Amino acid sequence: MIIGNWKMNTLRADALALANAVMEMEYLDSTRVGICPPALWIDPITRIVKDSSILVGAQDCLGDRAGAHTGCINAAMVCDAGCSMVILGHSERRARFGETSEKLLNTVAAVLETGMFPLVCVGETKKQRESGKAFDVVAGQLRPLLTSGLDLGGIVIAYEPVWAIGTGLSASRKDIEEMHATVREVINRNDTLVLYGGSVSPESADDVFNAEGVSGALVGGASLNVSKFAAIVAAWERK
Ligand code: PEP
Question: Which CATH architecture has domain 2-237?
Fold first, then answer.
């Protein structure tokens, strides 16, 4: 699975052009390709990709029912707009908006209830890694999900070391393998996809995808350039 996270980028015309370009990409039926545009462009983009297998996702949402939450959108709304997934707990939202795995539980539940899948991001900061706490931090971010009683059958996890995001330096193959093994041990399910995210590029993709336990990638910056995004998909397919 290769998912593009466009973050807060693109005006309408750029977004539609990029979605049209993604539509032209060639990839195998067995590869699941998705894009998560800014919320405003979800509706026109779902219309563009409607006859393809490209998944469209939201970058966040609330789990609350409709009501007095100014400025927010909920899981039912993004599902109704045609999304099939929602990124939750991205480190940028954890850092800026105080999202925690505990606070996200009702959103994970609401997303699952709609039939969409949550793409839950976990990952440690540079300071946490340097102080030897990376594995505890990531396990701690996963644990609330496991003790929640939710059926995690459809969940997708993305391991995204915060120090690798947007830096141009993806984690080493060894770091990726070690953390993916930890994620899989904590989750304790064979069917869970565990993606890697953090400066995945056409240059780093082969190394990332050859790491044991990696089921694909969550791609930020490189997903805004269709040639780079297509090259990452191609790297996955020759793995
Ligand atoms: C991300 O923020 O999800 C991400 C992986 O970003 P980038 O690829 O730009 O590091």
Answer: Alpha-Beta Barrel (3.20)
